[in-house]
Amino acid sequence: MLKVLVVGGGGREHTLVWKLAQSPKVGEIYAAPGNAGTALIGCNLSIAASDIGALAEAAELYGIDLVVVGPEAPLAAGIVDSLQSRGIPVFGPTQAAAQIESSKVFAKELMQDYAIPCPQGVVFSSYRAARDYVHRHPPPLVIKADGLAAGKGVTVARSTEEALKALSEAMEGRVFGDAGNRVVIEECLAGREASLLAFTDGRTVVPMVPACDYKTAFDGDQGPNTGGMGGYSPPEFLSPELISDITSTILEPTVKAMEREGKPYKGVLYAGLMLGDHGPRVLEFNARFGDPESQVTLPRLKSDLVDIILATINGSLDQMRIEWSSQACVGVVMASAGYPGAYQTGFPISGLDELDDDILIFHAGTKLGQGQIYTDGGRVLTVVASGETLAQARERVYLNLPRIHFEGCHYRRDIAARAAQTR
Ligand code: AMP
Ligand code: GLY
CA–CA separation, 206 vs 335, rounded Å? Predict the structure, then answer.
C-alpha cells in the first residue's frame, strides 16, 4: 500500500486527495498544508507548499512513496528536482520544464520557435522600448509580466492609457517584483476560452476532458480577476474532433519541443486556449492541474489516478487506457466577503450536512476546530454537482448552494448559464 503526499491546500488539492484516496493502492494519504476537507480524508502536515526542504524531510520521515504537487510555485522553485535527487517519486515537471508556466517569455519563445499556434507577441526587457511599441500599436493589447504573479500579471488593455499603466506598474513600479523585469505584449484575440489539460510522460500525451473556468469575481464577467469562481466540464463548444486537433497541433508538438530543448516535460500540461475563427490558440501554459478545473474534471475520471500518475512517472503512459464518465459537472466557488480584495476569516460554515447525497464539496480556505469547520481563506469551498447534461448539473448545484452558509459568503449565479442553454 502506498503512502501519498499531496502538496498544497486549495480546492484542487482537496480534489486530488479525494480522488487518490479512492485508489485501492493507497494506504495513507497526507496533505501539506491541506485544509479541513483534506483533514477529513487523510492527515494534514503543517508545512507550507513553498517549504521544499521541510517537505522533502517530511517525505523521508513518513516514508512517502509518491508526492503529487498541486500549485505552480513549488514546481517553479524546483521541488521535483529536489525530491528526485533524494529518490522520492514525484509527479510534476522539473524546474527547467516548469518554465513553460513560470516564464511567459520562455513559453512565448518556445511557441514561436516551434510554430505552436498562439497570439502574436513581442518580448521586451526595456520599459522605453515597450512603451514605444504600445504607442505604435492600436489597442486592445495584452500586457503580460514574465514571471509568476498569482494570476494578476496579465492585463487586457482596452486603451493605450491602460496598456501604458500596466507596463509602468510592472516594469517601473515593480508591483510583481522581478516577475516584471520582462513583459510580453500580445495581440488581443476574441473567442471563447477553454482549458485542455493532458497527462504526459514526455513522449505520450493523453488529453483529459476539457473544462471552462470563470476568472472574474462577479456575474457577467464583471469585477476583478480571482483565482477562479467556478467552472464546468465539458465545454459545449469543444467537439472531440477539436480536442484531437488541439492534441496534435498544440499539446504533442509542445511536449516534443520541450524534449528538443533539453527540458523533457512530465506531469500535467495545461493549455489555456482561445477558440475562435482563427482556430485554437494558446494564451498560456500551466505546469499543473487547474483550479477550479480539477474540481469539475477529476470527478469525471473513472480510471485510477494513481495508475495514471505512476505510468506518467515511469514513462508507460502509452500502456494506459484512461476512462472518463459522460456526465457533466458544474462547480461553483463560495468566497469570503471582499475576496479577491481584503477579507476576514474564522466564520463558522453551516449547512454542509444538508446537501443532496451526490453533491461534492471541495474545501479551499477552511480549517477544522472543535468539531466545526471555519472559513480560513478567500475562496472557501467549491460545490460540485453532476448530471446527464450541463443544464441538470447546473440546476442541482444552484439548488444546493443556498443551504450552505457563512458570514458574508458570495458566489456567482451564472456559472455554466450560457452552456446550459445551448445543450
Ligand atoms: P493568462 O494568464 O495568460 O491565461 O491570461 C489571463 C487571461 O487574460 C486569460 O484567461 C484571458 O482571458 C486573457 N488573455 C490572455 N491573453 C490574451 C490574448 N492574447 N487575447 C485575449 N485575451 C487574453
Ligand atoms: N483555472 C486557472 C488555473 O488553474 O490557472
Answer: 33
Q: Using the mean position of ligand 2's atoms as its centre, give its distance from the Cα of residue 42 in Å.
A: 25
**CATH code for the domain defined by 328-421:** 3.90.600.10
**What is the biggest distance separating any 2 CA atoms in the chain, rounded to whole angstroms?**
62
Proximal ligand: closest to the CA of 294 = 2
Pocket of ligand 2 from Cβ distances under 6 Å:
213, 228, 286, 290-291, 293
Distance CA 4, CA 360 (A): 22
State pTM to two decimals: 0.96
2-94 fold:
Rossmann fold (3.40.50)
What tens digit of pLDDT does each residue of 140-186 get?
999 999 988 877 788 899 999 999 988 988 888 788 888 888 999 99
CA distances from 230 to 62, 82, 149, 253, 415 (A): 35, 33, 20, 30, 6
For 276-303, what is each residue's pLDDT tens digit? 888 999 999 999 999 999 999 999 999 9
How confident is the model over 207-232, as pLDDT tens digits?
Answer: 999 999 999 999 998 988 888 999 99
Q: How far, in Å, is the centroid of ligand 1 from the Cα of 234?
A: 20
CATH code, 192-319: 3.30.470.20
What is the residue extent of each domain of the chain?
2-94, 126-181, 192-319, 328-421
**Euclidean distance between CA atoms 68 and 39, whole angstroms:** 17
For a mutational test of ligand 2's pocket, the pick from 293, 297, 379, i.e. the residue with the most ligand atoms closer than 8 A to its C-beta, is 293
Class of the CATH-defined domain 126-181? alpha beta
Please tell me the number of the ligand nearest to residue 295's CA.
Answer: 2
What's the CA gap between 156 and 141, in Å, rounded?
Answer: 6
**Nearest residue CA, atom 15 of ligand 1?**
283
- Residue 418 is inside which H or E element, if any? helix 417-421
Cα–Cα distance between 224 and 216 in angstroms, integer? 5
